[in-house]
Structures are given as C-alpha cells and as structure tokens.
C-alpha cells in the first residue's frame, strides 16, 4: 500500500473532526434558516446536553440551541455567515473566526467560536462577538 492509499484509509485525527465540526456548525446550524434542516444538523453535530453561550445567554440542549438560532435569523434577516480563516484545533478544543452580514457586503458582525468536543460531538460552544450587534437589536 502506497502513502496515498494509507492516507485515504487512515483514521481521521481528532483535530480534523473538530475542524469539520466547526465549519459544519457555522453553516449547517447557525447559517441554516430552515428550522427542520437545522434540527437535523444539530442532532448530528451536537451532544444532547450541549451548551451554547454567547453575550445574550446560555442555552442547553438541542431545542434551546435551535430556538436561539431561530431568534438570530429573525433579528438579522438575509444575513449569512462566512468563515474567516481556517479552523484550529487541538486537545478536544477548537476555534473558528466568522463574519455575519448581508450577501456581497463586508460583515457587520465578526466573532470567534470556541468549541469543546467530546466523543466527536460539540459539547460546548462559546461565541465571542467582536462587533456590536446593532442591526435589529433591541435592549
């Protein structure tokens, strides 16, 4: 078996899995406006008791996460997420910078997701927001 064949059959590194989870979560969970498709992605990517925390609150479990993302889409209609740079991961932890804004325009909000992964699923995600949320935000 040559090097290419061994590489194709190798078991993925944990960091590969974490990097994949970060990107899939950004687009399939947070970037997905359809609640049913988002629910399916959450069930695949997240631990049952997974925790999502951002400056607006702390949400535990699949239903709470889905509701938090639904509220995000309602507050920012037409906004999309973009990955900024590539994800980094080691020792069960990963990070991904992101932007959030209208298609074709610079992001109006930027931030950083930090995840903890256990048994190949997201057990916790902490979203740090760099840019103040101003579009459609109410306090």
Question: What labels would you give this structure?
Answer:
alpha+beta
Model description:
The protein is α+β, with helices and mostly antiparallel strands. The protein has a single domain (13-129), classed as Nuclear Transport Factor 2, Chain: A, CATH 3.10.450. 35% of the residues lie in helices and 39% in strands. The chain is built from four helices and six strands, in the order H-H-H-E-E-H-E-E-E-E. It has helices spanning 3-9, 14-30, 35-45, 62-75; strands at residues 46-54, 57-60, 79-90, 93-102, 109-118, 121-129. It has a six-stranded mixed sheet with strand order 2-1-6-5-4-3. Helix 2 (14-30) runs antiparallel to helix 3 and helix 3 (35-45) crosses helix 4. The longest helix has 17 residues, at 14-30. The model is unreliable at 1-13 (pLDDT under 50).
Q: Overall 3D geometry?
A: globular
Gross CATH architecture: Roll
In total, how many beta strands?
Answer: 6
Q: How many domains make up the coordinates?
A: 1
Give the end-to-end Cα distance, rounded to a whole number of Å: 61 Å
According to CATH, what is the topology?
A: Nuclear Transport Factor 2, Chain: A
H-E string: HHHEEHEEEE
- Which parts are unreliable, with pLDDT below 50 for 5 consecutive residues or more? 1-13
- Rg is 16 Å
Proportion of strand residues:
35-45%
How many helices does DSSP assign?
A: 4
Spatial strand arrangement across the major sheet: 2-1-6-5-4-3
The major sheet is characterized as:
6 strands, mixed
Helix and strand composition category: alpha+beta
The CATH first-level class comes to Alpha Beta
Mean pLDDT: 88
